[in-house]
Amino acid sequence: MSSDKLEYIPKSIPGEDFELGRMKLQSYSWEDISAALIDYLSRTKDELIPTQLEVLQLFKYNGSWGLSNHENLEDLQKFFDIFNKVYFNGVITGYWKLELYALRRYNDYDGYCELLKGTERDPGFKHETARIEALLNIPMHEMSHALFGIYACRCERGCKEKYDMIVHRSRWRGHPLAWQAAAFAIEKVENDQNARIKMGFSLELKRKAEECLKETGWRFIAKANSCIRSHWKVDSAIHSSRIEEF
């Protein structure tokens, strides 16, 4: 086998290299990126860098729930910058952009079927802190993906094929064990009472990529299943196939 056909082995990441300007784009394995982040988050309280101390103090005195407008990009950007500096040592600075998109549902493709569990979230029980907590979990989740997307190697000597398999064809679709380990490290740091980083609310990155909003309680509903297309519903009785209009 010629040397140009040999599988490329990405470089490891020394602890001191996990910072902006020293990390090389698309140069490392998923496992080494995960290990570098975990090592960074596992350092003792005495090893906090000045930037982290400054950001944590700013966050502490401004309050954990300082989002005046949930759809205001400027307010959200503040938390993105804080998370980037505290949890990722700023290594994704300049490589991501925060935007809001309106989701549109087209009438030609609005049919779907689903099973209902017999309960649903009760809109009468809303919790503002849980709403903001869920809102901030989403950027943390995506920032974790950005870390791997920016620095994972995609060369033609095996890495590109592995990257495509992890992102597009694997069981977890972009959430392999390396990503889950990194996400767990972030959650552990925030949830551990003795952690060096404590920002005042619980982060939950949904390691299986299941976005579970925690803003309402639950209530019982009559239907056990439904097939819906715009204005139809199917009666849940076993022997009934009656279709009713809303």
Gyration radius from CA atoms, angstroms = 22 Å
* Cα separation of the termini: 68 Å
Structural class of the helix and strand makeup? alpha+beta
What order do the strands of the largest sheet run in, or round the barrel if closed? 1-4
Q: What's the story with the biggest beta sheet?
A: 2 strands, antiparallel
> How big a fraction of the residues is strand?
5-15%
Dominant shape: globular
Poorly predicted regions are 106-116, 208-218, 221-246
Give me the number of helical elements: 6
Helix percentage: 25-40%
How many distinct beta strands? 6
Write the layout of secondary structure elements.
Layout: H1 30-41, H2 50-62, H3 73-87, E1 111-115, E2 119-122, H4 128-151, H5 159-169, H6 177-191, E3 217-220, E4 225-229, E5 232-234, E6 243-245
Helix pairs in contact: 1-6, 3-4
Give a quick precis of the structure.
This protein is an alpha+beta fold and 246 residues long.
Could you explain how this protein is built, in words?
The protein is of the alpha+beta class. It has one domain. The chain contains 6 helices and 6 strands; from the N terminus they run αααββαααββββ. The strands form 3 sheets. The protein has a two-stranded antiparallel ribbon. The protein has a two-stranded antiparallel sheet with strand order 2-3. A two-stranded antiparallel ribbon has the order 5-6. β5 and β6 form a beta hairpin. α1 packs parallel to α6 and α3 crosses α4. It is globular. The N and C termini lie far apart (68 Å).
